[in-house]
Write a structure and sequence with these properties.
By secondary structure, the protein is of the alpha/beta class. The protein has five helices and five strands, in the order E-H-E-H-E-H-E-H-E-H. The longest helix has 15 residues.
Length: 127
């Protein structure tokens, strides 16, 4: 059974590369995409049970991934959220984790760890 992923990423090139790679390496299906905070929070509120893993970039066309993380604080125990960013500074990591992210990954250097996280059993079961 494929992991249902909701992707919050405004960069088309990254989406075009990440979606098939998630399918191939993480046995995941991207069930929704948003380029901004408003679209992400709207989708999430209208599909509360339609996803298992939210993958959130922090810098978006509109709003911020931090706002998306705030929206995800009330998610179900079987749902997880990770930040995938080009700017994983200690401050960003701390703020993301404080808002409920399960993990923070650098797009440039931690993709292997990100895909490994997607394959871990906790990505498919309750926290």
């Amino acid at each position: 059974m494929a992991l249902k992923v909701f992707l919050v990423e405004d960069n088309q090139t990254i989406r075009d590369n990440l979606i098939p790679t998630l399918a191939d390496l993480a046995h995941a299906e991207v069930v929704g995409i948003a380029e901004g905070e408003h679209d992400a929070t709207t989708w999430l509120s209208s599909h509360p049970d339609g996803w298992e893993l939210a993958v959130v970039d922090l810098f978006l066309k509109e709003g911020s991934g931090l706002g998306v993380l705030r929206e995800l604080q009330g998610r179900s125990p079987h749902q997880h959220a990770v930040v995938l960013t080009n700017y994983p500074t200690p401050s960003i990591r701390h703020r993301s984790l404080a808002l409920g992210a399960d993990a923070v990954f650098d797009k440039s250097t931690e993709l292997d760890a990100f895909f490994a996280f997607c394959l871990q059993p906790q990505a498919h079961v309750t926290r």
